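Side project, low priority. Logging it here so it doesn't get lost.
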Amino acid sequence: MSQTFPKTQLWFMDWHSRVLDHDPISDYFSPTPFQPGVYPGMSALIALPLNLPCDITFTKRVSMPRPLPVFEAQDAGNGLLFFQSKGTETFLKSAPVPGTGEITADSPNSKEWEHFLPMTEDFMRGLSTLLVSQTASLIDVKTGSVFPAIRPNEGFLWALGETFIPLTANIQNIEQIGRLPARHEAEISFIRHDDQPPLQVHVRRPG
């Protein structure tokens, strides 16, 4: 008998640091900026750990009649996914067109703009904490200086001070911050995007 795993709700970030959301006007995918404490209106239930490739059906928080394509989630490497429209040779793409961007399901490629980062609820909480300076103090263990809030950037490389932090390599670190209760603290070893030693950050949550 094959083992089954409970499904976990996941949200998805694109290459441009936006999230897959739902536009109730067009009743379709919409890219929106990551907003601390706000859960996008488009998600998927997937069993963890991911066993790729696997079928994936996106769910809208606001029930609307337009059916969404069924996709096969495939491994894009480095913790990222791409979504192939079931039964076709096309892929979901988030393009940085002027304005808010555009999501299409007819891309013939599976490159950067077709890559997405799956995010758990803990990850989204942790990233929200890093984005809002009032929710946590971020202290450089080496120098004692306080970091500003993390800054979004393309390619899943976000800036913490002068250091670029690859989100894909720090998923467990960010999830740990997301689980950190008020009035608690932890020391996090952020993996850098280069060959430098990890960035040691003391994270302190206020009461």
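Brief comment: DSSP finds two helices and 16 strands in the chain.
Revisit when time allows.
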